[in-house]
What does this fold into?
Amino acid sequence: MNNPMKAIVFLSALFISNFAWAQFDVEDRDDNFITENNKSILKIDIKEPLLQVAVKNCTDFQAASFEGGIPAYKEILRKYMYDYLNTDFYVLNGDFTFTITVDQKGKVTNIEGTPKVANSHVFFDDMKYIVRRIKKNWIPATCNGKPVTSQIKIKMNLSTIATDV
It folds into this structure.
């Protein structure tokens, strides 16, 4: 072989080997590395006592209570929050207040969250789902010995810490 032919064969081989290595590199790259190895840790601090709004014109108001007490409710709520909050879609930092309405039968009929911030509606929807999953009923509040609808305010502080695993 003459020199120009050797040069063409050499350059062709070099080009083909570079192309092959480039394909190998792209095909073996793990594109899921970042998403699978970045996790967030959610810290939940539910404040006590849970505040209740008294009924107007009531001389003998008895606040609603939960079977097993407020500490039992807080523990179930915290456990369900860890189990069901979808923290892959939002980051939670700061103070939040949830107002739960308990009817005369002890059923939760409404859940409202504040403050309203960007994308908080997704978090609030998750919290509605969580509160409704708690199967135990409340013992309704009473006014002058009769069951009444009442509101319970739950204050909590949430903080999300992002980590690399």
Notes: Residues 1-30 form one domain. The mean pLDDT is 81.
